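User: what does the whole thing look like in 3D?
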Amino acid sequence: MQHLRHCQGLARVSLIGTQRTYLVKGAAPAVTTCVGPLSVRWQSHGNHGGQSGQAHTGLSPRWRHLIAGLVAGTGAVLAYGLYNNQAERAATSIEPVTPSSFPIYSQNEVTKHKTLDEGVWVTYKGSVYDITNFISMHPGGDKILLAAGGALEPFWSLYAVHGQDHVLEILSEYKVGELSPEDRMKQLKMADSSDPYSTDPERHPALHVNSLKPFNAEPPAALLSDNYITPNALFFKRNHLPVPRVDPKTYKLEIEGLPGRPVSLTLNDLKTRYPKHTITATLQCAGNRRSEMNTVKQVKGLNWGIAAISNATWSGARLRDVLLDAGYGPEVAAKARHVQFEGLDRDVTGTTYGASIPLVKAVSEIGDVLLAYEMNGEDIPPDHGYPVRVVVPGTVGARNVKWLGKIVISEEESKSHWQQNDYKGFSPSTDWDTVDFKSAPAIQELPIQSAITQPADGATVDRSMEEVTVRGYAWSGGGREVVRVDVTTDGGKTWHIAQLQNSEKGQEPASSPPPGQAWAWKLWEVTVPLPTETQELEIMCKAVDNSYNTQPDTVAPIWNLRGVLSNAWHRVKVKINEDNEEEE
Amino acid sequence: MQHLRHCQGLARVSLIGTQRTYLVKGAAPAVTTCVGPLSVRWQSHGNHGGQSGQAHTGLSPRWRHLIAGLVAGTGAVLAYGLYNNQAERAATSIEPVTPSSFPIYSQNEVTKHKTLDEGVWVTYKGSVYDITNFISMHPGGDKILLAAGGALEPFWSLYAVHGQDHVLEILSEYKVGELSPEDRMKQLKMADSSDPYSTDPERHPALHVNSLKPFNAEPPAALLSDNYITPNALFFKRNHLPVPRVDPKTYKLEIEGLPGRPVSLTLNDLKTRYPKHTITATLQCAGNRRSEMNTVKQVKGLNWGIAAISNATWSGARLRDVLLDAGYGPEVAAKARHVQFEGLDRDVTGTTYGASIPLVKAVSEIGDVLLAYEMNGEDIPPDHGYPVRVVVPGTVGARNVKWLGKIVISEEESKSHWQQNDYKGFSPSTDWDTVDFKSAPAIQELPIQSAITQPADGATVDRSMEEVTVRGYAWSGGGREVVRVDVTTDGGKTWHIAQLQNSEKGQEPASSPPPGQAWAWKLWEVTVPLPTETQELEIMCKAVDNSYNTQPDTVAPIWNLRGVLSNAWHRVKVKINEDNEEEE
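Assistant: Here's the predicted 3D structure for the full assembly of 1168 residues, as structure tokens:
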């Protein structure tokens, strides 16, 4: 950051090894994602003359992530933060056309300029730009040609990173004309419908939205522990791309990598050819509780609270049954190691969301991996993968691919950004300068987790009550059952053992799941006395699973640059209100 | 403790609900094991007149555990601490016979008194005791009748708890005569051969012995990390009972609980009828690193250091193959849940060591449970289960039953003390007054673990070296692979990532195990700079496995009354020697 600030203008940054160069301006926003360590050449220009140099580590991490985010290749850009007023305005508002000395072009004229030979023109907000000389510098590479001869708005609305002042400033350098008023009106009419998020479903107003496009939201923590089964509307939403609208009548699931011809299954096939299997399983985002990591040091990612976790019943065909039916056998088992999933949600280049799980989990008799078509007894809602999603119980949310389009049995993990360069854990001392994504395994099973949902952090409890009831959830990955939750109000000197609940309140407790198949969380509750000598109380909880793994005491030693796997003891501070004295 | 001290003599203690009463004296040693909360009635007598009362919690935990230990029923007494000079002397030495006013009895006369009707007599060190009135008060219950008409020594040598002054004092009250000198000599000659530990094998002198009878020992920590595969002689030993001497020619393994007649297999059957399967697997005692818990608050159990863990290659028949061959199928799977193992090691009542594992682990295609007959390419040594032991990789040592005699497929866990009332984890706030062993699951998979083997705690490193090389081991249960070890020398501000080693030093690294089958530890090493400003250095390590579980920061929050599952960050303090200054 400081490095480029010295340039006082624009910098031409080329990523060594990528042959890509980009112009960036001093004030960059924190952005999105990364692709590992980069060496960067930079050259400033603009009003104050040029400077140039080469930096392998000289650029601040923040800058390098911006660049990395822009470069991240096909499908690699996480468009979180896309809910950006600038981008929205760009796509929908009409701005006054000021007289200019630029020539007027019709859309037809612009459309003729689609190749490097004829020059590449684009339009943006009624202006025409010849970006031919910029193509080789575009951090997103050839993807820029998708907009050749047309408007930038539909593409920029997909990638929040473009909705920044410095990008507009770069663009302005390439302006060659104005679009004719008639063609501009046509474009604006199209803008609304070209927003890929325009068909996203309605959401529940109680959700706390972390990002609108793509939609990422969590329920209020207090509501979370009200129900053992989270209602669909309140189930946390974590989308990476726009929600695809899939016609169940024409839906096809392709299966590749098995002997013989690829298999194609309709929704009806899935519902009728395989036994309907139902499990109750908790899904958790790898970034749940990321906000606590931010208190140690800023990380990259959505600022999730403690509610990027929810519990539902899921029904569908067992992936094992489908694979066996489709030709899976010892011959495949001898070679293949992974099952890759591709979603039907795709970015502007057509790259779909993707992830993979170990084959051994997919075919395990006790793995319970589902091609689910029902969530809590209803068709899976659009936000959760309608008509078919994978449910990989015990495994991080990111592998539970929604809007499932394709299954590939393979010797290799998914090549997707989300499998290779995201959703991995690192040492607290690993930073964006030193991170090697190949050095860590993709997150699959998640570690033991628990959190306090009530009282909320900062809440006030009444001294006259003499005690406080603490509630929360606890869950562990890999089918490991939570066996105990301990709660302390004296800094860990004494611990209160919480009552665990594995069914809706007031219902009979469910029977204990078989070993290795405890997919669902436990809610818990314990009432502890209020201390008499203090006006503030810190409540902490920790859970233990049946492998006797337990949560680490503190956040700092598990801090990691992506802010995933945040599972230290959960802490809330509450104030004790002395209002009973006033009543006397 | 204080409670009984007031009695200034003997107390008659009856355990409410058990109808057993015992006489105990003020100064009790810390003993062995427990069976949950007890209510106790007490009545003092002796020189200073009687007192009586009833205490549900009035007795100190130490007392109650003594009592619990004595009561612990068939096979429930853990004879740790059995290496007791008194007990040894009792069994082997000749003491001068002092003239006494007691009548002289022959062994024949004593032998006639074996029943309550005729009176129960026993001998001890040449004296004869009529213990008829004591039978109902014996905390060990009817087991005492095993000694009726004979010598106590062979039984007391098995249970260290009797080798205490107060027990002798109680016994003295029941003295009725002296054994004839001829019969006493005969007894003494037999004593040596009646020591059930007399046929225990020779052990390596480098081992640190925690208990001689039964034998429990660990290698020096520094030696542990010298070899990726621990040599058999240095592999930690954890016996619960005397080592049985098993004749491989007559050895039979019984299998019950499957359809049809029980199956009986010879050693040759195991070696020839099933494929020989070899795995490298680390075994760890649940009590490894217990000594660190003792620094928080004293726990009950052997004071293990950090080396109750070792790594070996094991070869044998897969339990899955044997069970399938013996009739295991869907019919059994539908009902049974556990596989119980019985050892051929037995206590004086004939009760064998026992444990069980979940059936799902036993029959899993990737569970790798072995009926092992080789350890590191040799016949399994006597201390490790010759001729056949179970190896349950990823699972606590206690379930890896040695000298395997019987397998029972069952709907229930093993009823053994070690499955039901030991080897379980509890909250730090659970004490011997409140513990309910039914409330916690038997330990199976162990949590993530790591420790520093070099430098040793308290070692001195040379300032002139400017850096120190830190070595250790890391392992996790359930086949979860260790993916990272972090080491800090500044209290956790910065972490150094250690190099992991999954084969002998200097050899090619082994290929990565399939998911869920990482049974072997990783050794690790990292060289860190010595700080310039301090003369003492605290080195800490923590490991992470591929479910991203990590070790808790500190010991106190995972402290538990049995001192098991001790896996907080390992800490060693070293001194930095300034001797290079002297050289100048």
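In plain terms: Chain A has four domains: 1-78, 81-195, 208-427, 449-583. Chain A is about 15% helix and 30% strand.
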